[in-house]
């Protein structure tokens, strides 16, 4: 069985930084995604922008390199997979492309079927299937969350469209004359995170009793709603009632609201939730009665199934309308709160920026909620100011998405010749599946091996999916190599189906230092050795030698680091390595949260805002492992920027 050779593309990042002056910038682009452009389109662009003489030189150079590459490929040994089967790269590529086309057709068919079913269930009809009505968890017989019995099973009523008219008829169905008030937001139910996982059913959505409002004999089954069992409600959207007992009926006339805590204060029901408090304690405008609380969901534009997980664009409901959340100032603590409101505690709570999982529509309800991390939902966070942020968040180009998963994650290696090697399978939601090898590297392999209790260095192997039977998980690991389990790694979501053969594999070894040694041998001896700089310093102060005033476009690779709004204080500078990588001084960013500063490109004069400026948030920061704040030795840090959509610095 043949081992895959080690590659300098995936050596420890701090060592790469140490040797950075001698490495191509392409080596640092671990996470770059391919551009969606054909060779023909590239040639057309080159013809338009490059002079004919230079273009001819480039074509000749490319032809020479292609011929050399073919000669080298002919001399390479045939690589083996874990199963020992030889593979034809061209045949494998054609197979993968065919599988991607089939997966794309299947997903489009599924989405069309879902849309057709949704359209068929949005027509209201009489609730003739309702057999009985009851209230639960209210403490007394006259109040509680409302349930209906359909075909012998009890289920809840959604609070969408539920008001005084519906509450009156529900109370008459329970044997009372009318309702004192209605309740929303699961008022009488459990607020414990994840309680809805315990077989909670919703049967009725958008109930409307206005057509039988004046009929004293009407019951809930005479009202209309969407077909029973079809709804788009969440488990925090449960309606309830408080029915007037015989002693309470005379407190206020019919069609009037009795203020809780001051029952003789009566106001017309039309004034409830009109934005103007009438009751002495403003209970007629209470948030729990008039607004959606804790109503959070995630949506995706395509099918990406992970059992037991919540995955997609974050949406919250306000004023009866679904809207998105802006990614500006959105932190990992905010993501924890979103996941808790979706029923997840602990585990992965990963935010994705720049509408990574699709753009939403409607209002952008929240921006920078500044959660502590222990709140029940975003509306309880310190800076949860409700308004439409669509303009400042660029019309849904900055919608935040999350991945939440709090179940146990198991890892195993299969189909390897030894216990230390094989295809990586991960158990999610009780189901084993294969990790996709897109962007899978030695750092990710290191964490897989650590999770299995296998120390030493790890080698990532791609194309190890041959023979896999279970699902291909759409999760792309982004580990730093020091984590002890997969829950601690960042992840991304694959935006296209992973071919069956593109499984990730690892070889765990007990060696130490081999990777570093191979890298040193592969580079020239002078790499990483600084020149004598003693003549450039006077005592401890650096000299300015041969300085000049730069013009606007002299240094397009330079960037500014600033504190995030509103401070905007200048921190220091940096240099662009790739469209999503910037190198800067470690002392500038050490100790700062990555959400507290931004990277500004296209700026010439730091004292003024210029039209060419563009700000990027930081997704990840790696500080040199031997950085010393006192001596400023190894004062270097690498910043990975959050892409906007799929675009970095251009």
Automatic annotation (TrEMBL):
Keywords: Disulfide bond, Glycoprotein, Hydrolase, Membrane, Protease, Repeat, Serine protease, Signal, Transmembrane, Transmembrane helix. Residues 544-650 form the Peptidase S1 domain. PROSITE patterns: LDLRA_2, SRCR_1, SRCR_2, TRYPSIN_DOM, TRYPSIN_HIS. GO terms for molecular function: serine-type endopeptidase activity. It is a single-pass membrane protein. GO terms for cellular component: membrane. InterPro entries: LDL_receptor-like_sf, LDrepeatLR_classA_rpt, Peptidase_S1_PA, Peptidase_S1_PA_chymotrypsin, Peptidase_S1A, SRCR, SRCR-like_dom_sf, Trypsin_dom. It is found in: Membrane. Transmembrane segments: none annotated. Its main location: membrane. The keyword DNA damage does not apply. This is Neurotrypsin. CDD domains: LDLa (cd00112). GO terms for biological process: proteolysis. Residues 1-26 form the signal peptide. Pfam families: Ldl_recept_a, SRCR, Trypsin. Residues 133-244, 298-405, 411-509 form the SRCR domain. Disulfide bonds join 371-381, 479-489.
């Amino acid at each position: 069985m043949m081992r895959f050779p080690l590659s300098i593309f995936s050596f420890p990042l701090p060592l790469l930084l140490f040797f950075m002056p001698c490495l191509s910038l392409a080596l640092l682009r671990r996470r770059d995604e391919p551009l969606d452009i054909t060779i023909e389109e590239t040639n057309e662009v080159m013809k338009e922008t490059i002079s004919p003489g230079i273009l001819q030189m480039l074509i000749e150079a490319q032809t020479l390199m292609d011929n050399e590459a073919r000669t080298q490929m002919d001399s390479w040994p045939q690589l083996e997979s874990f199963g020992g089967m030889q593979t034809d790269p061209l045949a494998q590529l054609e197979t993968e492309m065919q599988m991607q086309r089939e997966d794309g057709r299947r997903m489009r068919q599924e989405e069309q079927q879902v849309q057709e079913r949704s359209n068929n269930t949005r027509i209201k009809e009489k609730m003739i299937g309702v057999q009985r009505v009851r209230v639960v968890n209210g403490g007394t017989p006259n109040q509680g969350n409302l349930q209906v019995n359909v075909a012998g099973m009890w289920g809840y009523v959604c609070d969408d469209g539920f008001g005084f008219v519906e509450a009156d008829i529900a109370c008459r169905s329970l044997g009372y004359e009318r309702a004192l008030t209605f309740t929303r937001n699961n008022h009488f139910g459990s607020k414990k995170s994840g309680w809805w996982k315990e077989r909670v059913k919703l049967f009725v959505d958008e109930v409307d009793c206005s057509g039988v409002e004046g009929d004293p004999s009407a019951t809930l089954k005479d009202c209309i709603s969407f077909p029973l069992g079809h709804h788009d409600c969440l488990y925090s959207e449960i309606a309830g009632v408080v029915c007037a007992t015989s002693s309470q009926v005379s407190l206020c006339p019919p069609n009037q609201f009795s203020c809780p805590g001051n029952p003789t204060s009566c106001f017309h029901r039309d004034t409830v939730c009109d934005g103007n408090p009438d009751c002495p304690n403003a209970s007629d405008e209470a948030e729990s009665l008039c607004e959606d609380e804790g109503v959070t969901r995630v949506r995706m534009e395509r099918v990406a199934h992970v059992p037991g997980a919540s995955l997609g664009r974050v949406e919250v409901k306000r004023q009866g309308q679904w809207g998105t959340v802006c990614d500006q100032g959105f932190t990992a603590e905010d993501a924890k709160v979103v996941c808790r409101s979706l029923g997840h505690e602990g585990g992965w709570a990963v935010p994705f920026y720049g509408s990574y999982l699709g753009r939403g529509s409607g209002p952008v309800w929240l921006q920078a909620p500044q959660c502590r991390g222990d709140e029940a939902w975003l509306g309880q966070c310190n800076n949860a100011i409700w308004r439409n942020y669509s303009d400042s968040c660029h019309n849904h180009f900055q919608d935040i998405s999350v991945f939440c998963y709090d179940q146990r994650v198991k890892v195993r290696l299969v189909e390897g010749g030894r216990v230390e090697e094989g295809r990586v399978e991960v158990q999610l939601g009780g189901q084993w599946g294969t990790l996709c090898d897109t962007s899978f590297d030695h750092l990710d392999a290191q964490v897989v091996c650590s999770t299995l209790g296998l120390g030493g260095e790890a080698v990532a192997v791609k194309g190890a999916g041959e023979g896999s039977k279970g699902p291909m998980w759409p999760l792309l690991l982004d580990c730093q190599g020091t984590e002890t389990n997969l829950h601690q790694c960042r992840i991304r979501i694959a935006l296209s189906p992973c071919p069956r053969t593109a499984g990730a594999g690892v070889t765990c070894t007990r060696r130490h230092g081999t990777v570093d040694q191979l890298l040193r041998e592969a580079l020239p001896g002078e790499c990483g050795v600084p020149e004598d700089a003693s003549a450039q310093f006077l005592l401890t102060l650096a000299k300015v030698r041969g300085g000049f005033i730069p013009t606007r476009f002299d240094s397009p690779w330079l960037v500014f680091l600033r504190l995030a709004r509103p401070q905007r204080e200048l921190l220091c500078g940096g240099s662009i390595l790739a469209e999503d990588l910037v190198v800067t001084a470690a002392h500038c960013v050490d100790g700062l949260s990555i959400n507290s500063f931004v990277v500004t490109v296209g700026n010439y004069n730091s004292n003024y805002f210029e039209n060419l400026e563009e700000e990027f948030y930081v997704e990840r920061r790696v500080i040199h492992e031997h950085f010393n704040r006192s001596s400023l030795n190894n004062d270097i840090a690498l910043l990975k920027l959050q892409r906007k959509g799929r675009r970095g610095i251009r």
